[in-house]
Specification:
alpha+beta; globular; binds cobalt (II) ion; three-stranded antiparallel beta sheet; Jelly Rolls; binds succinic acid; 11 helices
Length: 374
């Protein structure tokens, strides 16, 4: 999917070129990627979000050369009284603001399966979170004000010990740029970076998860454990007296090894695991069911004008399997093109071809608050 907006994001560069030359390989600075962009919300609106229970917010201060971090919600008074410089960050802006979701979806040239969220930060003059590296791919889009970004592909990732946040011991910048409103900086994972506000500024960052193998392995084992059905029980009717009663016998080890060989998995299991994992809502996400949901027939009539996914809904598919908000969903063959469209575009305007089962599924999702009438 490419939109005119996206073509502007990269200036003269095509998405194919970006993917081939930059994605996960090297940083890219695009001046004036979104002409006229000054942000999605004002400083005051951001403070309102940081004071709400719905948002995941952090406050980082380096006043007096001492790094501190606090987790929200925060009162406005907290910001007013804070010693400068400091920065406040709100994670998951896309879940709170439809325009933020729209902005984040402009990056759909990267699969949604890699997408994490859109974060916004506000910093006072000189504020930032310090030189560090992330395990994420990130697009940093400058909103209001200016920010100086220094970046480095240094191998030295040693962090200062004893600090409440991850700060590099020996940051050696390779590039040094001042970003203005509408400028965009792409950073691959592991690139060290330090963004310092020049005057007060706000930065929007779209982050893409790159899951560590260890984490995937641990999660997959939990997924398997929930579905595990091993039959039988340890048996030793042919037991012979052992010389050492304290010894675990070879026969016992062999029998248990044979039992454990019953734990098997294939690509189908991996597909189901990934579908559920990648669509699982974050801990702070709750769906609001419509107070007085329309019954099926009235919903079907109203839905003729279209439906749209709630910003919090994650709908992905893998081949013919669909997953929504952590659960698999059964979609009939004839309906699949429509549901794929809904998953890609996040809205569906023509529901006339849907089967009765397809409409019933949408009605179900509507009653759960996963989607709404357009
Ligand atoms: C920020 O927006 O202040 C920080 C983003 C980052 O460095 O990851
Ligand atoms: Co970072």
């Amino acid at each position: 999917m490419t939109t005119p907006f996206l073509q502007r994001l990269f200036g003269g560069l095509s998405v194919q070129q970006f993917l081939a030359e930059y994605w996960q390989k090297k940083p890219l600075l695009v001046r004036n990627a979104i002409p006229g962009f000054t942000g999605l919300l004002s400083r005051d609106e951001m403070f309102d979000l940081a004071s709400s229970d719905d948002a995941e917010s952090r406050f980082v201060s380096q006043a007096g050369g001492r790094w501190t971090i606090e987790h929200g919600p925060f009162t406005r008074e907290r910001f007013r009284r804070a010693k400068k410089p400091w920065t406040a960050l709100v994670q998951g802006l896309n879940l709170l603001l439809p325009e933020a979701d729209r902005l984040m979806r402009e990056f759909s040239f990267i699969p949604y399966a890699r997408l994490d969220d859109l974060m916004v930060s506000y910093a006072t003059d000189g504020g930032g979170v310090g030189p560090h590296f992330d395990s994420y791919d990130v697009f940093l889009l400058q909103g209001m004000g200016r920010r100086r970004w220094r970046i480095s592909n240094q191998k030295d990732q040693r962090l200062i010990e004893g600090l409440p946040l991850r700060i590099l011991q020996d940051f050696r910048p390779k590039y040094d740029w001042v970003l203005e409103p509408g400028d965009l900086l792409y950073l691959p994972p592991e690139w060290a970076h330090d963004g310092i506000a020049i005057g007060e500024c706000m930065t929007y960052s779209v982050g893409f998860r790159a899951a560590p193998a260890q984490e995937l392995g641990e999660q997959f084992l939990m997924f398997l454990a929930e579905r595990l059905e091993l039959r039988g029980r340890y048996a030793d009717s042919g037991l012979r007296q052992q010389r050492h009663p304290a010894e675990i016998s070879k026969q016992m080890v062999a029998q248990v090894a044979a039992m454990l060989n019953g734990i098997q998995w294939d690509e189908r299991a991996v597909k189901e695991f990934l579908g559920s994992l990648l669509t699982e809502p974050k801990a702070q996400v709750f769906f609001e069911r419509p107070a007085r949901p329309l019954p099926a027939a009235r919903f079907a009539a109203a839905a003729k004008r279209g439906v749209r996914l709630d910003a919090r809904t994650q709908l992905l598919f893998c081949g013919n399997s669909f997953f929504i908000n952590g659960e698999p969903a059964k979609v009939g063959a004839a309906d699949r093109p429509h549901f794929r469209h809904l998953a890609d575009r996040r809205r569906l305007s023509d529901l006339s071809d849907l089967s009765a089962d397809g409409s019933a599924l949408l009605h179900d999702w509507y009653r759960c608050g996963f989607l709404a009438l357009a």
